[in-house]
Amino acid sequence: MKNILLINVFGEDRPGVTSAITEVLSRYDISLLDIGQAVIHDQLSLAILAAVPSQVNIDLVTDEVKSCLLIMDIRVKFLPISNQAYQNWVEQQGKPRHMVTLLARKIDAIHLALVTTLCANTGLNIDKIVRLSGRMQLDDSDKLGRACVEFSVRGEAQDPRAFRNSLLELASQHNIDIAYQEDNIYRRSRQLVVFDMDSTLIDAEVIDELAKEAGVGDQVAAITEAAMQGKLDFKQSFRQRLELLEGLSVDVLQKVAQRLQLNEGAEHLIKTLKQLGYKTAIVSGGFTYFAEHLQSILGVDYIYANELDTENGLVTGKVVGDVIDGQRKADLLRELAQREGLALEQVIAVGDGANDLPMLNIAGLGIAYQAKPLVKASAKQSISNLGLDGILYLLGYSDKDIQALG
């Protein structure tokens, strides 16, 4: 039978601390059961769970560890662990693990207090907390920028649906975003991201912009808003809006394309995804002309959208072929996954409207971006307070990771 000893080390970080401790332990044939380390503002916190052979004098071991650390001005505490306590800890490794990701323009203590209290009240134990956003200058600490903290939690929420609803309510009340996702193998092996276009990659609904040029802006915008909120069938509303564009000159398409603005973080996100080896796609209920325009700017791999029918240089008010609605978006996502040899769990979908919900719901990670309340409540995750590149945080990438890509 071995004795179990937890060694807690803390002090100013410096080279050689871990090697000094483990060198002492190695002389007594001590096994390491677990080890973890964190450094915050040059202050080290190191924990080693050690199995000490029964014939070894533990006092002798602890004295030697203290001596080697005293020279470095490092403090240490020792805590005996019972065999039963250790066995209980081992058995917990089979429990589900989730990631809670807190995103905001600025994270305050109240945000952490509310999120951690909610986790505790629902039966989740926080094992690890990591800051994914970069360090900031003190003068910038009160400014709005971008911030992210990730919590690794163990256990299963007592009522997952109620927990998600509580997170959504909390996020809405404090202008923050909170994601809750299972920490499984798929989270680290996603390889395809499918984007809606209008109001997701770009900050406008193209059909509304075309309607302004045709002098029917208010009529079309009202129909668009109702459709995005799920109050109207998408195909029906789409055909109604298209009919109002009949007679519009095709020359207007280029004019509208040139004034479209990418949403915050779109370019950075897609550039980073490409560097990381992801494939990207636009699957849109908008129009191919504008999807191709974005493809030329962003280098998206695949595009699927509606093709405007034209005749004699004028828009006819119809599309070529079938309308891409919500169900077709989901079907195209499936086809793309199959084409890339991926499981649906390896696909990410991003959209803002009710017609995006079918693809958001079948993707391994469905993200409602700057979405309507109905969509936000129905999607697995949502981002409303950061740019699109906040998605990188949901994938577990830190600012430091991204900066290393160059």
Tell me what you see in this structure:
With about 400 residues, the protein is α/β, with parallel strands linked by helices. It folds into 3 domains: about 5-90, Alpha-Beta Plaits; about 95-185, Alpha-Beta Plaits (2-Layer Sandwich); about 190-405, HAD superfamily/HAD-like (Rossmann fold, 3-Layer(aba) Sandwich). It is about 40% helix and about 25% strand. It has 16 helices and 15 strands. It has helices spanning about 15-25, 60-70, 85-90, 110-120, 160-175, 205-215, 215-230, 235-245, 250-260, 265-275, 290-300, 325-340, 355-360, 375-380, 390-395, 400-405; strands at about 5-10, 30-40, 45-50, 75-80, 95-105, 125-130, 145-155, 175-180, 190-195, 280-285, 300-310, 315-320, 345-350, 365-370, 380-385. The chain is elongated.
Radius of gyration using CA atoms only: 27 Å
CATH topology of the largest domain: Rossmann fold
CATH architecture of the largest domain: 3-Layer(aba) Sandwich
**Overall helicity:** 25-40%
What is the strand tally? Answer: 15
Low-confidence stretches: none
**Strand order in the largest sheet:** 12-11-10-9-13-14-15
Task: Please give a handful of descriptors for the protein shown.
single chain; 406 residues; Alpha-Beta Plaits; 39% helix; alpha/beta; 15 strands; 16 helices; elongated
Short structural summary:
The chain has 406 residues and is an alpha/beta fold. It has helices spanning 17-26, 58-70, 83-91, 109-121, 160-174, 206-214, 217-228, 234-243, 251-259, 266-275, 288-298, 326-339, 357-362, 373-378, 391-394, 399-405; strands at 3-12, 31-40, 43-52, 75-81, 97-104, 125-131, 147-154, 177-182, 192-195, 279-287, 302-311, 314-320, 347-351, 365-369, 381-383. It has a 7-stranded mixed β-sheet, with helices on both faces. A 4-stranded antiparallel β-sheet has the order 2-3-1-4. A 4-stranded antiparallel β-sheet has the order 6-7-5-8.
